[in-house]
Amino acid sequence: QVQLQESGPGLVKPSQSLSLTCTVSGASITTIGHYWSWVRQPPGKGLEWIGLLNSAGATAYKATFKTRASISRDTSKNQFTLQLSSMTPEDTAVYFCASSKSYADVVTHIYQYQGQGTQVTVSS
Questions:
Q1: Rounded Cα–Cα distance for residues 118 and 41 (Å)
Q2: Which helix (H) or strand (E) holds 103?
Q3: What gap in Å lies between CA 78 and CA 45, rounded to an integer?
Q4: What is the chain's Cα-based Rg?
Q5: Three-state DSSP state, 45
Q6: How many of the other CB atoms lie within 10 Å of CB of 73?
Q7: SS in 3 state form for 8-37?
Q8: Bridge partner residues of 90 (DSSP)
């Protein structure tokens, strides 16, 4: 059974950067056929995909996040991390890490496994 667990600060000040880590168990993040995503859900809104990391370590981002999001990985710890810079109150959301079996599943928000999510609030 694959499990994902997000960790990181619950409160970030405007203009600061957010760093969230997803720890994966039950599967290796280097196993071919997995796409590891960061997704968020602002209050009262639907899911918004931020970006992904594939098994080879390549990344892709939603256009609106391309200039301020960065996803990296630590294969020794089986973790992948989201860095999101220049945070504003509009970035307040529940942030999830998730896995998909294909890029097509990613773009249609089909996630095979998903963490429980972590609330991030941007406020001074």
A1: 10
A2: helix 103-107
A3: 30
A4: 13
A5: coil
A6: 20
A7: CCCEECCCCCEEEEEEEECCCCCCCCCEEE
A8: none
- Residues 43-62 have pLDDT tens digits of 999 999 999 999 999 999 99
Tally of CB atoms within 10 A around 5: 14
Scanning the structure block, which residue is given the tokens 């301020």?
A: 68
Are the beta carbons of 97 and 37 closer than 8 angstroms?
Answer: yes
Amino acid, single-letter form, for residue 119: Q
Question: Sign of the CA dihedral 54, 58, 60, 66?
Answer: positive
| pLDDT tens, position by position, 86-118 | 999 999 999 999 999 998 999 888 999 999 999
Length of the chain: 124
Specify the residue for token string 């990985």.
73
